[in-house]
Amino acid sequence: MKSDPVEHPAHYVKGDVEAIEAIRASMSRTAYEGYLKGQVLKYAWRYESKGNPHEDIRKAAFYLRELGKLYEDFGDLT
Questions:
Q1: CA dist 57 → 1, 19, 38 (Å)
Q2: What letters, b where the CB count within 10 A reaches 16 and e where it falls short, cover 38-70?
Q3: Residue 36 pLDDT > 90
Q4: What HEC string does 18-53 produce?
Q5: Are 65 and 73 a contacting pair, CB within 8 Å?
Q6: How many angstroms separate the CA atoms of 26 and 62, rounded?
């Protein structure tokens, strides 16, 4: 897997496991959904305040896509 500061940051990989995979495995669906929502909000909130707004927008979009995948994987369980 090629390192990318948004999609696959090298500093979030230990061995063959990426942090987001470990986080998902450690949480219930509801908890993981909340984590993803929080990440979207965090990056959308701060993109104008940091030196690289494009990267924070890409990060917000990444977590939003992950949230969308959660609904594709499990359906609307709410």
A1: 22, 20, 14
A2: ebbeebbeebeeeeeeeebebbbebbbebbeeb
A3: yes
A4: EHHHHHHHHCCHHHHHHHHHHHHHHHHHHHHHCCCH
A5: no
A6: 20
Partners of residue 13 on adjacent β-strands: 18
Report CA 48 to chain centroid distance, whole Å.
Answer: 19
Tokens (6 digits) for 32: 């993981």
Other Cβ atoms closer than 10 A to 24: 16
**Mean pLDDT for the stretch of residues 67-78:** 75
pLDDT band at 9 (very low <50, low <70, confident <90, very high): confident
